[in-house]
C-alpha cells in the first residue's frame, strides 16, 4: 500500500515539473523575434565605404537595403553634404541597391571631414540620413613660369609672363572616367623677393588618360628687364596647397642678338676718335632685322662722354671726343630697342698729359682792386692747351692780406670748346675738347685779361 502511494506521488511530481516545460520553448521563440524588430529604427539600411582619395577628391560606394527584409532598394538617390553649410558635395542614383562616386569633392584637402549621407527613396517616403567620415590627402602641385620679351614690338614693350599650376595623379588613383579638378586662385611673380606681377588662374579640368589638371594665367611685367630672374608663388585653394617654382627663372629675350665692335680708337693730343660697328643676328622667330640708325653711347671710365648714331647704309660710325691725360677705359654701348638686344664693347687707351695754361679775369670793372662791402665780385677762369680751351675742374681760393692760409671760395668746371658732332663714314669727324688733369693750381693764378672764355665765378 505504501509503495503505491509513493509511485503516485512521483507521477504527480514528474507531471508537475514537465507540464510547464512544454510552454517555455514557445515563450522563448516568441521573445527571439523582438530584437529583430527593435533594430529597424529606420526603414532602410544605408552604408558607405571610401575607396580612394587624391587631394580633396575621393571615390566611394555603398548600398541601400530595406531594414525589415534586407532586400536591395530598387529606386531613389543619395546625396553627400557638408552639415556645416548644407552644401551638396555629390549625388548618385541607387540601382539594384548600390551607388558610387568616382570623383566627389570634400570641403578641403588633407583633412578628416564629417559629412551627412542622405537617401531619398523617391516614392514619397521620408528621406533618411546617416553620418559618414571622409579623409582626404595632400596632392602634389607644380608651378612653372615662363617670362620673355617678344621678338618685335615698340621699344617700351614690357616683359610678358605665363604661369602654369598643374597637378598629376602619379599613382592613378581614380578610374579613367574621373575628372580631376584644376587648381584655382592666384599667383604672385617676384623679383628678388618683391612682387612685380599678379596672375589670376583660369583652370581646365581634365579626364583620362592625363590623370592631372592644370591652370594657366598670363600678365605683363612693367619694369622687368631681360637680365632679371623671377619666381612664381601659388597661394593655393581648398583643393591644392601653395607652391612655388623650383628655382628663379631667367627672362628670355626673343629679340635679335647684337654684336657691337670697336673697330678703331685713336688719340691725337687731347682728342680721341672711336669707330664702332653694330650687327644683328637672328631673333626667336628666325629672322634678322635691320640695324638702321640707332644711338650708341660712349663712356669714359664709367662716365658718359658722348652719343652718336649708326647709319642705315653703314654698319660703322665714328665720333670724335676728348680725353684727359692718363689711362682710360672707353666703352661703347647700345641700349637695345623693340627688335634688337643690347650689346656693348670696350677698349683701353693711354693719353699723354699735355701742358695747360690757366688765366683768371676780373669781370667786376677793375683789376682785382678794392671791392665795396656787399658788392659782387665776378671773376672768370680760362684753361687752355695751346690755343684750345679745354674743359677742366678748377678751384678758386682767396687769402686775405696778412693771412697764412688760402680759403676756398668756390669750385667750378670750365666749359671748354663746343662739343663735336658725329662724322659720316669716310669723312673726318669733328672733335671736341676734354677736361685736363694738369691744370695750374689756383694759388698761382694771375689776372691776364677779361673775356668770355668760360663760366664766371662769384
Uncertain residue ranges: 1-37, 419-450, 454-458
Report the β-strand fraction as a percent range: over 45%
Helix content, binned percent: under 10%
Highest CATH level, the class of one domain = Mainly Beta
Main sheet summary? 5 strands, mixed
Seen as an oligomer or otherwise, the chain set is single chain
Q: How confident is the prediction overall: mean pLDDT?
A: 79
Structure description:
Strand 17 and strand 18 form a beta hairpin. It is built from 3 helices and 33 strands. The strands form 9 sheets. A 5-stranded mixed β-sheet has the order 14-16-10-9-20, with no helix packed on it. Strands 12, 13, 17, 18 and 19 form a 5-stranded antiparallel β-sheet that branches. The protein has 458 residues and is mostly beta strands. Among the domains are: 92 residues, Macroglobulin (MG2) domain (Immunoglobulin-like, Sandwich), CATH 2.60.40.1930; 113 residues, Immunoglobulin-like, CATH 2.60.40; 94 residues, Sandwich (Immunoglobulin-like).
Short account of what is shown:
With 458 residues, this protein is mainly β.
Amino acid at each position: 500500500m505504501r509503495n503505491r502511494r509513493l509511485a503516485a506521488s512521483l507521477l504527480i511530481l514528474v507531471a508537475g515539473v514537465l507540464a510547464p516545460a512544454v510552454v517555455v520553448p514557445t515563450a522563448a521563440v516568441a521573445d527571439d523575434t523582438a530584437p529583430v524588430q527593435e533594430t529597424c529604427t529606420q526603414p532602410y539600411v544605408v552604408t558607405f565605404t571610401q575607396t580612394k582619395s587624391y587631394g580633396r577628391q575621393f571615390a566611394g560606394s555603398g548600398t541601400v537595403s530595406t531594414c525589415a527584409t534586407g532586400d536591395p532598394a530598387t529606386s531613389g538617390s543619395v546625396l553627400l553634404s557638408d552639415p556645416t553649410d548644407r552644401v551638396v558635395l555629390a549625388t548618385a542614383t541607387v540601382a539594384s541597391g548600390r551607388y558610387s562616386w568616382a570623383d566627389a569633392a570634400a570641403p578641403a584637402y588633407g583633412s578628416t571631414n564629417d559629412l551627412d549621407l542622405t537617401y531619398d527613396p523617391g516614392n514619397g517616403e521620408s528621406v533618411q540620413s546617416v553620418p559618414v567620415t571622409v579623409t582626404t590627402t595632400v596632392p602634389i602641385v607644380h608651378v612653372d613660369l615662363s617670362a620673355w620679351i617678344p621678338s618685335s614690338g615698340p621699344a617700351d614693350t614690357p616683359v610678358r609672363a605665363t604661369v602654369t599650376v598643374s597637378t598629376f595623379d602619379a599613382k592613378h588613383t581614380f578610374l579613367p572616367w574621373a575628372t580631376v579638378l584644376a587648381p584655382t586662385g592666384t599667383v604672385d611673380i617676384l623679383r628678388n623677393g618683391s612682387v612685380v606681377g599678379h596672375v589670376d588662374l583660369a583652370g581646365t579640368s581634365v579626364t583620362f588618360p592625363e590623370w592631372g589638371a592644370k591652370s594657366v594665367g598670363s600678365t605683363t611685367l612693367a619694369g622687368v628687364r631681360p637680365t632679371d630672374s623671377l619666381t612664381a608663388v601659388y597661394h593655393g585653394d581648398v583643393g591644392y596647397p601653395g607652391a612655388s617654382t623650383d628655382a628663379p627663372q631667367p627672362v628670355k629675350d626673343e629679340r635679335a642678338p647684337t654684336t657691337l665692335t670697336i673697330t678703331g680708337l685713336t688719340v691725337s693730343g687731347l682728342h680721341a676718335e672711336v669707330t664702332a660697328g653694330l650687327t644683328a643676328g637672328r631673333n626667336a622667330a628666325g629672322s634678322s632685322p635691320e640695324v638702321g640708325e640707332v644711338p650708341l653711347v660712349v663712356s669714359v671710365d664709367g662716365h658718359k662722354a658722348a652719343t652718336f648714331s649708326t647709319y642705315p647704309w653703314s654698319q660703322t660710325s665714328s665720333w670724335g671726343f676728348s680725353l684727359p691725360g692718363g689711362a682710360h677705359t672707353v666703352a661703347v654701348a647700345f641700349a637695345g630697342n623693340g627688335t634688337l638686344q643690347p650689346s656693348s664693347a670696350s677698349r683701353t687707351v693711354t693719353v699723354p698729359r699735355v701742358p695747360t695754361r690757366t688765366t683768371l679775369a676780373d669781370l667786376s670793372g677793375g683789376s682785382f682792386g678794392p671791392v665795396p662791402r656787399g658788392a659782387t665780385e665776378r671773376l672768370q677762369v680760362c684753361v687752355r692747351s695751346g690755343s684750345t680751351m679745354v674743359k677742366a675742374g678748377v678751384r678758386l681760393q682767396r687769402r686775405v692780406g696778412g693771412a697764412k692760409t688760402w680759403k676756398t671760395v668756390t669750385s667750378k668746371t670750365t666749359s671748354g670748346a663746343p662739343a663735336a658732332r658725329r662724322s659720316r663714314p669716310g669723312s673726318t669727324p669733328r672733335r671736341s675738347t676734354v677736361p685736363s688733369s694738369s691744370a695750374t693750381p689756383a694759388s698761382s693764378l694771375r689776372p691776364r685779361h677779361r673775356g668770355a672764355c668760360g663760366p664766371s665765378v662769384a
